[in-house]
Amino acid sequence: MTVTIRRATGDDAGLLVKVIDMASGxxxxxxxxxxxxxxxxxTAVGFGLVTAEEGDFSYRNGFVAESGGAELGGMIGxxxxxxxxxxxxxxxxxxxxxxxxxxxxxxxxxxxxMATIPEGRRQGAGAALLSEAEGRAxxxxxxxxxxxxxxxxxxxxRVYQRAGYAERARRPFDVSAFxxxxxxxxxxxxxxx
Length: 193
Hints:
By secondary structure, this protein is of the alpha+beta class. It contains 6 helices and 7 strands. Strands 1-2-3-4-5-7-6 form a 7-stranded mixed sheet, sandwiched between helices.
């Protein structure tokens, strides 16, 4: 079966929220729960961010991998600003190190989150999404691609290494408040120039 990649629409919010959950190991949805106003749960916060017209998690930055009409996974990515932008005052403490890492690769095409859903694994969706990211980076004349992965996610690190990404830097990533062991955030990059 052939894997195709298409731009996400607002109707893909459910898949993109699932991708964010999987890619972050549940950390981002847990954070959304803490952000939710009374009477709203974290999933609703996530849907609001994904269906927004702007923002890092907006569906406008999303891509969906499909085969035979079935969704296999997704990715949210975009070009980082040429001028590094420090973490703002609203940045949750757990993500300050992640923001610092992103500042090290200005102008790179940044894969914010990427995941293949369990029923879509081993069908080439991950490779197709990485290829789409590289094509977008080249079309925008980005100097390279970058992503951040938890040091504890050995399987993902191996996938990215096989795709030509190399470690550039690390920062502490203390996710103990979300029921996980503290680890490190690892910046991986692939130069195109």
